[in-house]
């Protein structure tokens, strides 16, 4: 069962995503901010990370940078979740090492396709 780490400061978003992903058979672990998420990425061995961009403490940009700089976590695919669709953001995030970009409100069918595609690609490469 693939493990997904959700790094999201909004409790309602964490709850909705975790419930829906668990119903789909994923093992889900939760982090409430960027610092906690970076630490959990090292200890929880997720297969994929869903990362909110706008968080207090350590935002998604900085958390992604830290994860991609570390040999222990640089291989982890990150799907960014953001409420702010800014022109050029997707390209900048892909350049930063993110696997995908998804705007809120989350379109669950689309997000599931993105997740499955990334996980299938990882299995193929292994």
Query: How large is the share of residues in beta strands?
Result: 15-25%
Main sheet properties:
5 strands, parallel
Distance between the termini: 16 Å
Roughly how much helix do the residues carry, as a percent range?
Answer: 40-55%
Low-confidence stretches: none
pLDDT averaged over residues: 93
Rg result: 13 Å
Instruction: Quickly name the level 1 CATH class.
Output: Alpha Beta
| Oligomeric form | single chain
**CATH domain topology:** Rossmann fold
What's the CATH architecture name? 3-Layer(aba) Sandwich
Q: Structural class of the secondary elements?
A: alpha/beta
Strand order within the widest beta sheet: 2-1-3-4-5
Gross morphology: globular
Q: How many helical stretches?
A: 5
* CATH superfamily heading: Response regulator
How many β-strand runs? 5
- Number of self-contained structural domains: 1
Order of helices and strands: EHEHEHEHEH
């Amino acid at each position: 069962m693939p493990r997904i780490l959700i790094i999201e400061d909004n409790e309602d978003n964490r709850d909705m995503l975790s419930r829906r992903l668990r119903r789909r058979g994923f093992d889900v672990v939760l982090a409430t901010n960027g610092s906690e998420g970076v630490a959990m990425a090292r200890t929880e061995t997720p297969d994929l990370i869903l990362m909110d961009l706008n968080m207090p403490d350590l935002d998604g940009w900085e958390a992604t940078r830290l994860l991609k700089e570390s040999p222990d976590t640089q291989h982890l695919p990150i799907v960014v979740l953001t409420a702010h669709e800014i022109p050029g953001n997707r390209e900048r995030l892909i350049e930063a090492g993110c696997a995908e970009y998804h705007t809120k409100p989350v379109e669950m069918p689309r997000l599931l396709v993105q997740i499955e595609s990334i996980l299938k690609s990882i299995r193929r490469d292994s």
